User: Fold these one by one.
Assistant:
Number 1:
Amino acid sequence: MLKRSQPDYNTGRRFFHEVTRQYDPLDPYTVGQKKLLQILGFSAQASVNVLEFAKGDIYNLIGKDFDAVLALDGMGEAHAAKLIALFAMIHEYEKHKQTQKIGNA
Protein backbone atom coordinates (compact mmCIF):
# COMPACT_ATOMS: atom_id res chain seq x y z
CA MET A 1 0.00 0.00 0.00
CA LEU A 2 1.26 3.48 -0.86
CA LYS A 3 2.05 5.86 1.91
CA ARG A 4 0.31 9.19 1.57
CA SER A 5 3.45 11.12 0.65
CA GLN A 6 4.74 8.67 -1.97
CA PRO A 7 4.15 9.27 -5.67
CA ASP A 8 1.89 6.90 -7.56
CA TYR A 9 4.22 5.49 -10.20
CA ASN A 10 1.28 4.19 -12.22
CA THR A 11 0.08 7.76 -12.88
CA GLY A 12 2.45 8.15 -15.84
CA ARG A 13 1.51 4.76 -17.26
CA ARG A 14 -2.22 5.55 -16.99
CA PHE A 15 -1.66 8.98 -18.57
CA PHE A 16 0.20 7.42 -21.50
CA HIS A 17 -2.62 4.96 -22.14
CA GLU A 18 -5.26 7.68 -21.83
CA VAL A 19 -3.61 9.95 -24.42
CA THR A 20 -2.76 7.14 -26.86
CA ARG A 21 -5.96 5.10 -26.78
CA GLN A 22 -7.84 4.85 -30.07
CA TYR A 23 -11.29 5.59 -28.69
CA ASP A 24 -11.71 9.08 -27.22
CA PRO A 25 -8.05 9.82 -26.39
CA LEU A 26 -7.34 12.37 -23.70
CA ASP A 27 -6.00 15.72 -24.89
CA PRO A 28 -2.79 16.12 -22.83
CA TYR A 29 -3.13 19.90 -22.94
CA THR A 30 -6.35 19.75 -20.92
CA VAL A 31 -4.77 18.06 -17.90
CA GLY A 32 -4.26 20.30 -14.88
CA GLN A 33 -0.87 21.24 -13.51
CA LYS A 34 -1.32 19.13 -10.36
CA LYS A 35 -1.81 16.01 -12.48
CA LEU A 36 1.16 16.93 -14.69
CA LEU A 37 3.39 17.29 -11.63
CA GLN A 38 2.22 13.86 -10.46
CA ILE A 39 3.09 12.41 -13.87
CA LEU A 40 6.60 13.84 -13.38
CA GLY A 41 6.81 11.82 -10.15
CA PHE A 42 5.66 14.32 -7.54
CA SER A 43 3.43 13.00 -4.78
CA ALA A 44 -0.07 14.46 -4.55
CA GLN A 45 0.95 16.46 -1.47
CA ALA A 46 4.15 17.79 -3.05
CA SER A 47 2.13 18.83 -6.12
CA VAL A 48 -0.34 20.70 -3.93
CA ASN A 49 2.50 22.37 -1.99
CA VAL A 50 4.26 23.50 -5.17
CA LEU A 51 1.07 24.91 -6.65
CA GLU A 52 0.15 26.69 -3.41
CA PHE A 53 3.63 28.23 -3.29
CA ALA A 54 3.25 29.22 -6.95
CA LYS A 55 -0.18 30.72 -6.30
CA GLY A 56 -1.88 28.14 -8.52
CA ASP A 57 0.35 28.32 -11.59
CA ILE A 58 3.81 26.77 -11.89
CA TYR A 59 4.79 29.52 -14.33
CA ASN A 60 4.87 31.82 -11.28
CA LEU A 61 7.94 29.86 -10.14
CA ILE A 62 10.02 31.19 -13.03
CA GLY A 63 12.66 33.43 -11.51
CA LYS A 64 11.98 32.22 -7.96
CA ASP A 65 14.74 30.99 -5.68
CA PHE A 66 14.74 27.21 -5.92
CA ASP A 67 16.01 26.97 -2.34
CA ALA A 68 12.57 28.21 -1.28
CA VAL A 69 10.95 25.55 -3.46
CA LEU A 70 13.29 22.93 -2.04
CA ALA A 71 12.14 23.87 1.46
CA LEU A 72 8.54 22.90 0.68
CA ASP A 73 7.19 19.81 2.41
CA GLY A 74 7.57 16.75 0.18
CA MET A 75 10.23 18.33 -2.02
CA GLY A 76 13.75 17.14 -2.51
CA GLU A 77 16.64 17.89 -4.80
CA ALA A 78 15.35 15.50 -7.48
CA HIS A 79 11.95 17.22 -7.56
CA ALA A 80 13.57 20.66 -7.71
CA ALA A 81 15.79 19.40 -10.54
CA LYS A 82 12.70 18.24 -12.44
CA LEU A 83 11.17 21.70 -12.12
CA ILE A 84 14.40 23.35 -13.29
CA ALA A 85 14.52 20.96 -16.27
CA LEU A 86 10.86 21.63 -17.04
CA PHE A 87 11.46 25.38 -17.11
CA ALA A 88 14.57 24.91 -19.24
CA MET A 89 12.50 22.92 -21.74
CA ILE A 90 9.80 25.61 -21.77
CA HIS A 91 12.50 28.23 -22.35
CA GLU A 92 13.97 26.22 -25.24
CA TYR A 93 10.52 25.75 -26.74
CA GLU A 94 9.78 29.48 -26.53
CA LYS A 95 13.16 30.30 -28.05
CA HIS A 96 12.53 27.83 -30.88
CA LYS A 97 9.05 29.25 -31.44
CA GLN A 98 10.48 32.78 -31.70
CA THR A 99 13.13 31.60 -34.17
CA GLN A 100 10.41 30.01 -36.31
CA LYS A 101 8.41 33.27 -36.30
CA ILE A 102 11.46 35.27 -37.35
CA GLY A 103 12.23 32.78 -40.13
CA ASN A 104 8.65 32.93 -41.44
CA ALA A 105 8.38 36.73 -41.36
Note: The helical segments are 10-20, 33-39, 44-53, 66-70, 77-104.
Number 2:
Amino acid sequence: MSLLAPPKAAPVIVDNRKFLVVENGLALGLPQRTGYVAVLDVGTVDLLFILKIFDLPSVGDGPEASDRAAPVITSMSHDAERAALLLGTDSGAQYRIDLAGLGVTRVR
Protein backbone atom coordinates (compact mmCIF):
# COMPACT_ATOMS: atom_id res chain seq x y z
CA MET A 1 0.00 0.00 0.00
CA SER A 2 1.37 3.39 -0.99
CA LEU A 3 1.24 6.30 1.42
CA LEU A 4 1.30 8.73 -1.48
CA ALA A 5 -1.96 10.02 -2.89
CA PRO A 6 -2.63 9.16 -6.55
CA PRO A 7 -2.04 12.02 -9.02
CA LYS A 8 -4.99 14.29 -9.70
CA ALA A 9 -6.47 14.54 -13.18
CA ALA A 10 -6.07 18.00 -14.67
CA PRO A 11 -9.32 19.77 -15.67
CA VAL A 12 -10.25 19.77 -19.36
CA ILE A 13 -12.08 22.59 -21.17
CA VAL A 14 -14.22 21.76 -24.20
CA ASP A 15 -16.83 24.02 -25.83
CA ASN A 16 -16.91 26.54 -22.96
CA ARG A 17 -17.40 23.76 -20.41
CA LYS A 18 -14.83 22.84 -17.79
CA PHE A 19 -14.75 19.19 -16.76
CA LEU A 20 -13.06 18.46 -13.44
CA VAL A 21 -12.84 15.53 -11.07
CA VAL A 22 -14.86 15.81 -7.87
CA GLU A 23 -12.38 15.07 -5.09
CA ASN A 24 -14.92 14.42 -2.33
CA GLY A 25 -18.47 13.68 -3.39
CA LEU A 26 -19.54 13.12 0.22
CA ALA A 27 -18.80 16.79 0.98
CA LEU A 28 -21.27 17.71 -1.78
CA GLY A 29 -23.97 15.40 -0.41
CA LEU A 30 -23.35 12.71 -3.03
CA PRO A 31 -23.58 9.04 -1.99
CA GLN A 32 -19.90 8.19 -2.56
CA ARG A 33 -16.55 9.96 -2.26
CA THR A 34 -15.09 9.27 -5.72
CA GLY A 35 -16.31 8.53 -9.22
CA TYR A 36 -17.72 11.90 -10.30
CA VAL A 37 -16.86 14.62 -12.82
CA ALA A 38 -18.29 18.13 -12.35
CA VAL A 39 -19.11 20.25 -15.39
CA LEU A 40 -18.86 24.03 -15.06
CA ASP A 41 -19.72 26.85 -17.46
CA VAL A 42 -16.40 28.60 -18.14
CA GLY A 43 -17.96 32.05 -18.59
CA THR A 44 -20.19 32.11 -15.51
CA VAL A 45 -18.36 29.49 -13.39
CA ASP A 46 -21.78 27.99 -12.60
CA LEU A 47 -21.99 24.30 -11.86
CA LEU A 48 -24.02 22.83 -14.73
CA PHE A 49 -24.19 19.23 -13.52
CA ILE A 50 -22.24 16.33 -12.05
CA LEU A 51 -21.70 13.09 -13.98
CA LYS A 52 -21.38 9.80 -12.14
CA ILE A 53 -18.62 7.85 -13.86
CA PHE A 54 -18.64 4.66 -11.79
CA ASP A 55 -20.18 3.02 -8.73
CA LEU A 56 -17.97 2.02 -5.85
CA PRO A 57 -18.00 -1.62 -4.78
CA SER A 58 -19.95 -2.28 -1.60
CA VAL A 59 -17.46 -2.89 1.22
CA GLY A 60 -19.53 -2.36 4.38
CA ASP A 61 -21.44 0.41 6.08
CA GLY A 62 -20.64 4.09 6.46
CA PRO A 63 -18.51 6.59 4.51
CA GLU A 64 -15.22 5.32 5.95
CA ALA A 65 -15.93 1.85 4.55
CA SER A 66 -16.46 3.22 1.03
CA ASP A 67 -13.10 5.05 1.23
CA ARG A 68 -11.11 1.86 1.86
CA ALA A 69 -10.47 0.81 -1.72
CA ALA A 70 -12.12 3.64 -3.62
CA PRO A 71 -10.66 4.07 -7.12
CA VAL A 72 -9.68 7.62 -8.04
CA ILE A 73 -9.84 9.29 -11.46
CA THR A 74 -6.20 10.14 -12.21
CA SER A 75 -6.27 11.13 -15.89
CA MET A 76 -8.64 12.96 -18.19
CA SER A 77 -8.06 13.98 -21.81
CA HIS A 78 -10.09 15.25 -24.76
CA ASP A 79 -10.42 13.00 -27.80
CA ALA A 80 -11.61 15.56 -30.38
CA GLU A 81 -11.83 12.95 -33.15
CA ARG A 82 -14.41 10.94 -31.18
CA ALA A 83 -15.99 13.97 -29.45
CA ALA A 84 -15.29 12.36 -26.10
CA LEU A 85 -13.37 12.65 -22.88
CA LEU A 86 -11.18 9.73 -21.87
CA LEU A 87 -10.71 9.04 -18.17
CA GLY A 88 -8.41 6.66 -16.32
CA THR A 89 -8.32 5.51 -12.71
CA ASP A 90 -5.52 4.51 -10.37
CA SER A 91 -6.85 0.93 -10.55
CA GLY A 92 -6.39 0.80 -14.36
CA ALA A 93 -10.05 1.18 -15.40
CA GLN A 94 -10.78 3.46 -18.35
CA TYR A 95 -13.99 5.31 -19.20
CA ARG A 96 -15.26 7.43 -22.08
CA ILE A 97 -17.73 10.34 -21.80
CA ASP A 98 -19.58 11.00 -25.05
CA LEU A 99 -19.67 14.80 -25.23
CA ALA A 100 -22.79 14.88 -27.43
CA GLY A 101 -25.08 12.84 -25.19
CA LEU A 102 -22.95 12.79 -22.01
CA GLY A 103 -23.22 9.02 -21.76
CA VAL A 104 -20.49 7.19 -19.86
CA THR A 105 -19.00 3.91 -21.10
CA ARG A 106 -16.40 1.72 -19.43
CA VAL A 107 -13.71 1.03 -22.03
CA ARG A 108 -11.46 -1.21 -19.97
Note: The first strand starts at residue 12 and ends at 14.
Number 3:
Amino acid sequence: MNSQGHIVKKKIRSLKSLKLRKIRYELRTLFFLVYKRRKRELNIKLGEVRVDSSLSFDGRTERLKKLIKERENLDISFRQYSINCSLCGNRMEDLIQDPCSLFWFCRDCYDWR
Protein backbone atom coordinates (compact mmCIF):
# COMPACT_ATOMS: atom_id res chain seq x y z
CA MET A 1 0.00 0.00 0.00
CA ASN A 2 1.14 3.54 -0.65
CA SER A 3 0.82 6.53 1.68
CA GLN A 4 -2.78 7.15 0.57
CA GLY A 5 -3.80 3.57 1.43
CA HIS A 6 -4.08 2.39 -2.19
CA ILE A 7 -2.76 -1.02 -3.22
CA VAL A 8 0.25 -0.56 -5.48
CA LYS A 9 0.52 -3.04 -8.32
CA LYS A 10 3.69 -3.98 -10.11
CA LYS A 11 4.00 -3.03 -13.80
CA ILE A 12 5.13 -5.66 -16.29
CA ARG A 13 6.37 -4.90 -19.81
CA SER A 14 5.76 -8.19 -21.63
CA LEU A 15 5.83 -9.19 -25.29
CA LYS A 16 5.06 -12.59 -26.81
CA SER A 17 6.12 -11.98 -30.43
CA LEU A 18 9.78 -12.77 -31.12
CA LYS A 19 9.95 -10.04 -33.79
CA LEU A 20 8.60 -7.43 -31.40
CA ARG A 21 10.99 -8.63 -28.67
CA LYS A 22 13.93 -8.14 -31.04
CA ILE A 23 12.72 -4.64 -31.99
CA ARG A 24 12.26 -3.79 -28.31
CA TYR A 25 15.79 -5.05 -27.57
CA GLU A 26 17.25 -2.92 -30.38
CA LEU A 27 15.42 0.19 -29.14
CA ARG A 28 16.48 -0.45 -25.55
CA THR A 29 20.07 -0.87 -26.73
CA LEU A 30 19.89 2.39 -28.67
CA PHE A 31 18.56 4.28 -25.63
CA PHE A 32 21.16 2.61 -23.41
CA LEU A 33 24.00 3.67 -25.74
CA VAL A 34 22.71 7.25 -25.90
CA TYR A 35 22.56 7.33 -22.09
CA LYS A 36 26.09 5.93 -21.73
CA ARG A 37 27.49 8.39 -24.29
CA ARG A 38 25.86 11.37 -22.56
CA LYS A 39 27.07 10.19 -19.15
CA ARG A 40 30.62 9.79 -20.51
CA GLU A 41 30.45 13.34 -21.97
CA LEU A 42 29.37 14.73 -18.60
CA ASN A 43 32.14 12.86 -16.78
CA ILE A 44 34.72 14.27 -19.21
CA LYS A 45 33.37 17.79 -18.65
CA LEU A 46 33.53 17.25 -14.88
CA GLY A 47 37.17 16.23 -15.15
CA GLU A 48 38.00 19.24 -17.32
CA VAL A 49 36.33 21.66 -14.90
CA ARG A 50 38.16 20.13 -11.92
CA VAL A 51 41.58 20.87 -13.47
CA ASP A 52 40.70 24.18 -15.17
CA SER A 53 42.97 26.70 -13.46
CA SER A 54 41.41 29.63 -15.35
CA LEU A 55 38.24 29.35 -13.24
CA SER A 56 37.89 30.93 -9.82
CA PHE A 57 37.02 28.68 -6.90
CA ASP A 58 33.40 29.91 -6.95
CA GLY A 59 33.17 29.58 -10.74
CA ARG A 60 34.53 26.03 -10.62
CA THR A 61 32.16 25.13 -7.78
CA GLU A 62 29.14 26.47 -9.70
CA ARG A 63 30.08 24.60 -12.90
CA LEU A 64 30.67 21.39 -10.95
CA LYS A 65 27.31 21.68 -9.18
CA LYS A 66 25.56 22.26 -12.50
CA LEU A 67 27.25 19.28 -14.18
CA ILE A 68 26.65 16.98 -11.21
CA LYS A 69 22.97 17.97 -11.15
CA GLU A 70 22.73 17.30 -14.88
CA ARG A 71 24.32 13.87 -14.40
CA GLU A 72 21.93 13.07 -11.53
CA ASN A 73 18.91 14.09 -13.65
CA LEU A 74 20.18 11.87 -16.48
CA ASP A 75 20.47 8.91 -14.08
CA ILE A 76 17.02 9.52 -12.62
CA SER A 77 15.34 9.75 -16.01
CA PHE A 78 17.21 6.64 -17.23
CA ARG A 79 15.96 4.60 -14.25
CA GLN A 80 12.34 5.66 -14.80
CA TYR A 81 12.04 3.85 -18.12
CA SER A 82 12.09 0.13 -18.83
CA ILE A 83 15.41 0.05 -20.67
CA ASN A 84 17.29 -2.60 -18.72
CA CYS A 85 17.23 -4.60 -15.49
CA SER A 86 18.50 -2.49 -12.60
CA LEU A 87 20.49 -5.42 -11.19
CA CYS A 88 21.87 -7.49 -14.06
CA GLY A 89 21.52 -5.01 -16.95
CA ASN A 90 19.51 -7.42 -19.13
CA ARG A 91 17.76 -5.63 -22.01
CA MET A 92 16.27 -8.66 -23.80
CA GLU A 93 13.85 -9.99 -21.21
CA ASP A 94 10.49 -8.65 -20.08
CA LEU A 95 10.86 -6.18 -17.23
CA ILE A 96 8.85 -5.71 -14.04
CA GLN A 97 8.70 -2.40 -12.20
CA ASP A 98 8.97 -2.70 -8.44
CA PRO A 99 6.11 -0.58 -7.01
CA CYS A 100 8.16 0.61 -4.02
CA SER A 101 11.50 1.53 -5.57
CA LEU A 102 10.19 2.17 -9.12
CA PHE A 103 13.25 0.33 -10.48
CA TRP A 104 12.88 -2.15 -13.35
CA PHE A 105 13.95 -5.80 -12.99
CA CYS A 106 13.95 -8.87 -15.21
CA ARG A 107 11.82 -11.73 -13.84
CA ASP A 108 14.82 -13.59 -12.39
CA CYS A 109 16.14 -10.55 -10.50
CA TYR A 110 12.65 -9.49 -9.37
CA ASP A 111 12.04 -12.95 -7.87
CA TRP A 112 15.56 -13.06 -6.37
CA ARG A 113 15.56 -9.65 -4.69
Note: The first helix runs from residue 18 to 51.
